[in-house]
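Write out the bound-state structure for flavin-adenine dinucleotide.
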Amino acid sequence: MAGKKPCVVIVGGGIAGGTVAKALQSHSDVVLIDPKEYFEITWAEMRAKVEPTFADRTIINHKEYLTNVNLMTTTAVDIKSKEVMTKDGRLVPYDYLIIATGHHDPYPVTKGDRLREFQADNKKIKDSSCILIVGGGPSGVELAGEIAVDYPDKKVTLVHKGPRLMEFVGPKASAKAMKWFKENGVDVLLDQKVDLEHSSDGVYSTTAGKTINADCIFICTGKPFGSSWLRESILKDCVNQQGQLMVDEHLKVKGHSNIFAIGDITDVNEMKQGYIAQEHAALVAKNLQILVKGGQESKLGSYKPAGAMAIVTLGRKNAVAQFPFATVSGCIPRMIKSKDLFVGMTRKKMGLKG
Ligand SMILES: Cc1cc2nc3c(=O)[nH]c(=O)nc-3n(C[C@H](O)[C@H](O)[C@H](O)COP(=O)(O)OP(=O)(O)OC[C@H]3O[C@@H](n4cnc5c(N)ncnc54)[C@H](O)[C@@H]3O)c2cc1C
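---
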């Protein structure tokens, strides 16, 4: 490789893939494979449904922050020992490969079409009196909170199959969210599923025998990890039962000296969060530069799993925060997340105007 820049192929253009591409673009020949033309600040999605104009700053075309990257708008479908194969039949050679395919969630290809999706969701909300949200994880909770605050005249029902909301954080955080929903007129039904196959004319029934009338429904149940495309690849033995890629302390895929994985797709035992994905990206960018300069394995930086920290918004003026040693709701988490949803900060990290 002497004299020639190494070719780094990154699969996945979320916060993990976008961040590492930006960090490496001046040191290596970087290719980013992503089925869409833009990076989306995914945690701002629920605000964009109640205020579609908010989405304009949260959807950023890759070419706005990646000035020296070969962008391939396609899906990776297989990995060979030296190439990535794409859906449109191309073979993309790599010296190093970084997998950042997070969760499987197909989005439209262009920013314009994604913005139109938010406008359509917003119209759906505006045109409805009764709204049913299925799934009490972070997406369902944040959407219910946004609608309850921006459209207080709508009847919102949130149905969750588990015994408490947001099982990824502690029970105190769930209890605080439940209390807030009660005070803000949102009906929360726990321990039951909505029968989606047998609903008709806006009448839904649950496995606990409840009937819910709703003019519109949002499905916010968990998404699978974005690893199904790896099941027949050279990495098939590195995907665990949950669909995550097994990595070592340097975030290399186990048993592969030139393949890394970062972000939600990894099996690191920690919460799946965007700020953590950014830390993975920073570490792998550094490790790759060490390897490219001929540095030894022993010089590579090691990753320490992050402590439990997450903030879930409850509309524009409230939130519940899970910190490693405390659970807090009210003005502190509100000031940290609810107003701008870290959009300005994330844009600045990408080298853009907040
Ligand atoms: C409601 C909600 C609120 C959240 N709030 C916060 C928060 O406040 N702070 C925070 O830090 N985190 C938050 N998170 C978590 C955060 O959204 C994720 O941790 C983060 O988006 C993970 O980034 P990623 O790049 O690893 O994966 P993803 O964002 O899932 O991106 C994966 C990318 O890979 C691409 N891809 C998938 N398969 C292929 C393929 N075969 N070929 C090519 N490309 C492919 C996709 O198009 C996508 O661009 C929240 C999540 C939710 C649901």
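---
The mean pLDDT is 96.
The pocket of flavin-adenine dinucleotide is lined by residues 11-17, 33-36, 42-43, 75-76, 100-103, 138-139, 142, 226, 229, 263-264, 272-275, 277, 311, 337 (CB under 6 Å).
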